[in-house]
DNA sequence: CGCACGCTTGATCAACTTCAAGTTTTGTGG
DNA sequence: CCACAAAACTTGAAGTTGATCAAGCGTGCG
């Protein structure tokens, strides 16, 4: 499956069609850095930075309204690429939602390489398109779904993006407040949604940050707006 | 401002940094087609289609939940590019929200051209990034804003994307039901939000589909989550 | 130990949805 | 061009959902 040197070596990205696997791994100029949770990722933090590939951890695009309301419009997971050559955030700022390990690629060397290397261009394009898909789905989640449906959808998104395949144990990765801000809910409401899914035996908890999917077909149906009463005869 | 042949000739896209202005205009193989409102745009409709540039009208990415709830995750306006070479919709389908005039670009000739022409690659990349920015902003709109804030935000988005500059008269382009589905509201709630903005004299109506921005600073503040009571001393 | 932080639970309240008319606009055939 | 029907939009009243406010419970750490 893998066809080039892998950077980072975090097994959460193995098997993916990530940028790393396409060509960036062969770049010698990559720098590995650790970033503390809650750090804002911007040009000042990483001078000369053009592209950043996440090795481990999660980054979010955070938006703050005038009165302090916070939302997270998109999240980036291991293997995802952040492109600092353009403003893609729509006015939001990139923030480390967990501690990170990131691979940095410096400007000039990378730009030359990208110019010549069709595989890298392709890998970057793939990454953009994947991001577009995720974001479109996320809009659909936010627009018309109930709290429980949003949470079911989030758990499914986590599983899909962690490349967990059909694994039943899913890492939530984020704190409750960040999941809430991502799904457009308040933490209290999110907590009640967790309880609801647990009571209906669609999920159970391994620990606070790891859920076990107990009834996947039902969870998928709930995520897609199916009728809870019909799905869970309790 | 324009630096190449323009296709379509719709003045709503003049002055933009759209794909058309960058390089696609020089492609001779483009086909102009009219599309009726409510048509689903897919591979069956346009065999061999790779890229589509909107000349006039609006396209939306539509998602339907199991019980029929509908949402529109993203919209495309004149000058925007639809890329049919990949699935970017996150499971949604592209639908003409108004009657359209579109410019189609056929597969093989275009692929060759793109391969050789750096300007076209750049123009496509620009288009993707613009789309990403709009979608991120839209997520922030959906997540935590009230109905009135969402509507204010939609009006501002319309103005910005229509390249209306600081024009006060804005075309809403969409029907109420589509605006509602885009902003995650029911048409009744949207209607009440329109009344609210009108009563507060932030907007007035030219006709049903054209609003006049009466107090732009206030409208911007409302769109960004400012306190209505403080902004509008009524 | 005790404080801080993150999460959960309970009660109340506001906002949005739903349901049910009305009203205006649009489109069509005579 | 008008009449009429259908579609689109608005308005009102009642019902739900999620937000807010307030308190309580663990867990980790100085």
Describe the structure in your own words.
2 copies of one chain form a homodimer. Chain A is an alpha+beta fold and 234 residues long. Helices cover 38% and strands 23% of the residues of chain A. In chain A, the strands form 3 sheets. Chain A has a 4-stranded antiparallel β-sheet with strand order 1-8-3-6. In chain A, strands 2-7-4-5 form a 4-stranded antiparallel β-sheet. In chain A, a hairpin with a 2-residue loop joins strand 10 and strand 11 (210-213). In chain A, helix 4 (147-161) crosses helix 6, helix 4 (147-161) crosses helix 7 and helix 5 packs across helix 6 (187-199). Mean pLDDT of chain A is 86; it is low at 1-19. The interface between A and B is large, with 45 and 45 residues. Chain B binds a DNA duplex (30 and 30 nucleotides) through residues 146-147, 175-177, 185-192, 194-195, 208.
Helix-strand layout with pairing:
Two copies of one chain form a homodimer.
Chain A lengths: L18 H4 L8 E5 L4 E2 L7 E8 L2 E6 L5 E7 L4 E3 L9 E4 L3 E7 H10 L1 H27 L2 H15 L7 E3 L4 H8 L3 H13 L3 E5 L2 E4 L2 H8 L4 H4 L3
Chain B binds a DNA duplex (30 and 30 nucleotides) through helix 6.
Offer a quick outline of the entry.
The structure is a homodimer of 234-residue chains. Chain A contains 8 helices and 11 strands.
């Amino acid at each position: 499956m893998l066809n080039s040197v892998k950077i980072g070596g975090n097994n959460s990205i193995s098997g993916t069609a990530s940028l790393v696997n396409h060509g960036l791994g062969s770049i010698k100029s990559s720098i590995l850095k650790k970033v503390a949770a809650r750090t804002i990722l911007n040009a000042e933090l990483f001078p000369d930075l053009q592209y950043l590939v996440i090795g481990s951890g999660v980054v979010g695009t955070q938006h703050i309204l005038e009165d302090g309301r916070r939302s997270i419009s998109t999240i980036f997971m291991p293997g995802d690429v952040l492109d600092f050559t353009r403003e893609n955030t729509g006015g939001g700022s990139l923030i480390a939602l967990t501690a990170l390990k990131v691979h940095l690629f410096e400007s000039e060397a990378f730009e030359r390489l990208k110019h010549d290397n069709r595989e890298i261009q392709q890998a970057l394009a793939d990454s953009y398109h994947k991001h577009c898909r995720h974001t479109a789905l996320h809009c659909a989640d936010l627009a018309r779904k109930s709290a429980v449906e949003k949470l079911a959808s989030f758990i499914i998104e986590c599983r899909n993006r962690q490349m967990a395949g059909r694994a039943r144990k899913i890492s939530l990765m984020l704190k409750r407040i960040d999941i809430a801000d991502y799904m457009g809910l308040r933490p209290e409401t999110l907590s009640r949604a967790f309880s609801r899914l647990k009571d209906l035996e669609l999920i159970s908890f391994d620990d606070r940050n790891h859920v076990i999917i107990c009834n996947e077909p039902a969870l998928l149906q709930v995520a897609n707006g199916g009728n809870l009463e019909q799905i869970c005869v309790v």
